[in-house]
Amino acid sequence: MRANYKMQRLFVPQDIAADAAFDASPEQSHYLSNVLRMAEGAELLVFNGRDGEWLARVAAKTKKAVRLEAVERTRPQPAPSDLVYCFAPLKVGRLDYLVQKAVEMGAGVLQPVVTQHTQLARIGVERLQANAIEAAEQCGVLAVPEVREALKFASLLAGWDKDRRLIFCDESAQTNNPLPALRAIGEKKLALLVGPEGGFSEDERRQLRALPFVTAIPLGPRILRADTAAVAALAVIQATIGDW
Hints:
The protein folds into two domains: 9-75, CATH 2.40.240.20; 84-241, Alpha/beta knot (3-Layer(aba) Sandwich).
């Protein structure tokens, strides 16, 4: 069942069941009251990533809080996506875009990776989570991706689940067509690794290519920015061997 894009959607941390009542957060209450100007009885959709999507109504309002009441479930909770998206964090504005698009494209886990050319010194997991939730609210996603703490490149590879195929975008590939390499993948458990603005170092490329669970793919004849490459790679993976 597809999402209802005509109604406001809100992520809430509380458990949701028929007739359950709970307060929206202060930020959400301000948004519902002062931006959307929702009156008592107004309807919206709520989800928590566990109990599906629910029709809810504004049950009561005060100056500081909006109380919501769940009415009926409109969509069941789907199984979470198993696609792991590993990425070298970018500068803040582009990083926000990258996370939002990864959520829209069906990533189930967001794994920041510190590579040799990564330029962002500090990675705020809370900001990544907030962007993931915002993207889920806007795009009808019910299973909010897990956001993990950043790992160094070497630690990512050392602790890798060998049963999960790791696809990485290799700008030095000798071909422009990623489809043959993707179609040759037999594993169902998949992950994508996209590098930073400066690309992977030669040493990192050598390490990746030497591992039996890694597949290198090109992304066509054009040079893509890291955030564009992420969207392009997720799209071609989902269309070729993913859930499209």
